[in-house]
Amino acid sequence: MEFKLDEDLVRFAVDYALSRGAKYAEARLQRDATKSYIIRNGIPEAVGISEEVGIGIRVLVDGSLGFASTDKWNDKEAIKSVIDDAIKIAKAHKLGDETFTEEPSYIAKVFIEPKINPENIDSSEKFNLLMELDKTIQTAHEKAKYPNRFMNIRETLMQKIFANSDGTLIVSATPRIAFFVFFVAAANGGFDTRFIERGEARGWEAIKDWKLEELLKEEAQSLARVLIEGKEPPEGVVDVVLGPEVSGLSAHEAVGHPYEADRILGREGAQAGESFVDPDMLGMKVGNEVLTVIDDPTIPNSYGFYLYDDEGVKARPRFLIRNGVITEFLHNRETAAKFGVKSNAAARASAYDREPIVRMANTYILPGDMTFDELIEDIKLGVYIRTFGEWNIDDLRYNMRFVGKEAWLIENGELKHLVRNPILEITTPTFYKSIDAVDKNIEFYAATCGKGDPGQGVPVFVGGPNVRLRNIRVLRR
Amino acid sequence: MLGINELLNLAEEAIKAFEKIKLDGYAVMVTSKLSRQVRFAANKISVTKTWDETNFSILVEKNKRISAFSVGYASRNLIPKMAQLAIKAIMKAPPREDYAPLPEPADKYPSIPAEMDKTLLDQPEKLLDLAKNAIDTGLQEGAKKIAGTILAEAYNFVLVTSAGFRDGNSLSNVYLDVRAFMAKEATGHASIASRTVSGINAKEVASIAAHDAKLSENSKTIEPGKYNTVFTIDATASLMNLVGGAASAYAVDAGFSFFIKKLGTQVGPENLNVEDNPLDSNGYRIRNFDDEGVPTKRLRIIENGVLKTYLHNRFTAKKFNAEHTGHAGWVFPHAWELTVYPGDVAWEELLEMIGRGLIVSNATYIRFQNYIEGTFSAIIRDGVFYVENGEIKHAVKGLRLSDSMPRILQNIIALGKDRRQVFHWWLEEGIPVITPPMAVKEVGFTKAFA
Prior knowledge:
- The complex is a heterodimer.
- Chain A has helices at residues 7-19, 76-93, 123-138, 205-209, 212-229, 244-256, 261-265, 333-339, 372-376, 428-433; strands spanning 24-40, 43-61, 64-70, 107-111, 145-164, 169-187, 190-200, 236-242, 293-295, 318-322, 325-326, 347-348, 357-358, 362-365, 381-385, 388-393, 399-404, 407-411, 414-419, 423-427, 435-438, 443-451, 456-464, 467-474.
- By secondary structure, chain A is α+β, with helices and mostly antiparallel strands.
- Chain A folds into two domains: 7-229, PmbA/TldD fold (2-Layer Sandwich); 236-474, no CATH class.
- In chain A, strands 1, 2, 3, 4, 5, 6 and 7 form a seven-stranded mixed beta sheet that branches.
- In chain A, a hairpin with a 2-residue loop joins strand 2 (43-61) and strand 3 (64-70).
- Chain B is an alpha+beta fold.
- In chain B, the strands form three sheets. In chain B, strands 7, 12, 13, 14, 15, 16, 17, 18 and 21 form a nine-stranded mixed beta sheet that branches. A six-stranded antiparallel beta sheet of chain B has the order 3-2-1-4-5-6. Chain B has a six-stranded mixed beta sheet with strand order 10-9-8-11-20-19, covered by helices on one side.
- In chain B, a hairpin with a 2-residue loop joins strand 2 (44-62) and strand 3 (65-72).
């Protein structure tokens, strides 16, 4: 059966759940159609096509939350069967005291139209592009070899129709396109590896705008130059400037995640973890005036774009930190009820078979008005980390680490030479307290954020300008 | 859930759609699965979930070109159109140099040592009981908060290939993952996996988690540097996942592996033996044929410390001029279920062997700086303890595991004798592991600047 954004099925599911005793019910019929074009070491490997369609239903019954899904989305008996199952199990555990916030109801349609539909681009053009890009990497640097290369173009169309028992009905269609590359550089007797990802909620026009040939040439040259020219970084306490790729990641990992209210409440305690942030930290000063961190799902064409979340709440920018002060956490209707606030539309589900949980969308540090030269001009000794390789952060989001990939020694206000693998291992409070300036050169990067159990990878942007941190310890590998 | 015969009929129906496009080869896998999950946090059940899914995974081949597509049960009428699209999309690309046809079925397959545990279908309340048991045990053992996950899957699946393979199996699996809290930084964790609900010992893992959480109170900071270290069963399972991932010939070919050019070399001490075994009767991931219809087998990846083989599908076997090892996944070869051979050393002896050192109970968020060198760091949590003369002196906070996998494998001093099967979705490579704990000398640890 061809997929149709048919409201009858979601209304049927909601009504049936209510008739079986649910106090609240929501249903989301979702289709994710994906095409991937993969080449490895210059040879087209495969085309991958997937068509994931199904209906996910969430019920609140006797204070307990149940979720069920089926891919037999056009079979009302199958829908009834999983709803019955969800309600039976939710009733059986009799431990719940869950409530949801009351929110306005909406009836809306959000359709994003690509300028160039990837369906209209012949697959040979896509493979030719990837093979040309592969050659670009291989010939990027005369003193380097690139023995392993892997590339993928992924096109997705996500269509959803959502209804809940409050009367909300949202219909949406969001195209996304992404490019992913991994390559190994061999030079000067050593090896190094690099991942790069680009993605937007657009059509094929994004591929052209990303200027991939230029990007890959620069990045492949950069990796070779690090191997050939990179020297030991300074070790000890110095000033550090982080490029947008790194500052954006820090905003996502060390502000966005710990400000997720479900983490703060311990709901993700099993594995994803809790948060070093407590509810009473709202209003606390955690950084300099120059530090503002925003999570905004409404940025047009962004990889994490949406206008209504997966609980039917209308999206808006969330100012997590404004001028150095914590102003807001990320909420869905479940966590907002516990905090006594309204949801700020952070509920997202990665597919029809996943429950909506608190997620980020596009998290970034607000740029300032300085130039990059002004940012580094008074640094006597420091390190500029433009890109990163290894990174991780503990489950409380308190103790983070980034290892530079392309990084430079800053000496007397100038970039002097490349350095290899400078390590920034630092606590979150110290990191944000140490930012004293940001420049105006904001950039956004696509990423896939993982959370939940079973895992839910959702598309996000991470972004920021170049940021300067004073008196930070840098380690060598 | 649909039965094996129904799934075979569905596969045959799908194959009829290929007649018009004259394929050189195809493989159709149809899986029907019922999954249930109970999640708990802060001492109560937070959500229960049920999934009902029937999915087609289809590989089509023509003139040495390959496309793969997947579609759900309700959209199966799209299969003819998707097959045409999939072939059309790949035909303008050059042929694969590593192409090898789907293998002929073997004369004999190992017998499946087990079947589906129907408790998962008929008695979902038993999963609630496991959750309650874990919460109650953890609290009785003195923890303040318990969180965790139970995920149970019962499934039928079939594979039909153009080379003549046609078979299916009926299986199940369950895991329980428990985390105990005394405070934000005083936590413990353990997990257990099994084919059956009855194989899940909630008391055992909840007790370990609560015990480690209590021991983690009043933690102290110590200097970063090199420490002899005992990795618990759970932490060893996390690291051995990386071994399974690096052994895939695909990872080797794509540059994702620290085993590149290491075949036949000593990658660990003589007492290190790591096997892939999808035929264990209580295994979390049992298979007697792979996704190309090749028989699976017990296969020693590391024997007496020597890397004996990579894991191959038909393409990598051709490219590496090696034998197919029965590890074809849908896209790339992978390990099914790792077994690390136990040593003969009791837990207490492991602690004594390291002298002054650390116990690491959980390693997560593992990220490589350089895949080929295997340099990485990992978050360590849920019980990091400083040990002297075989005794735990105090809990440790603020350290990060920062080393390389080749060095850790080479530096294994001893393997414990007690084993447990571990699986949870946070394992980096998604490979179930049956492993003992291990002691490793001079492991690198770093510390955050504050």
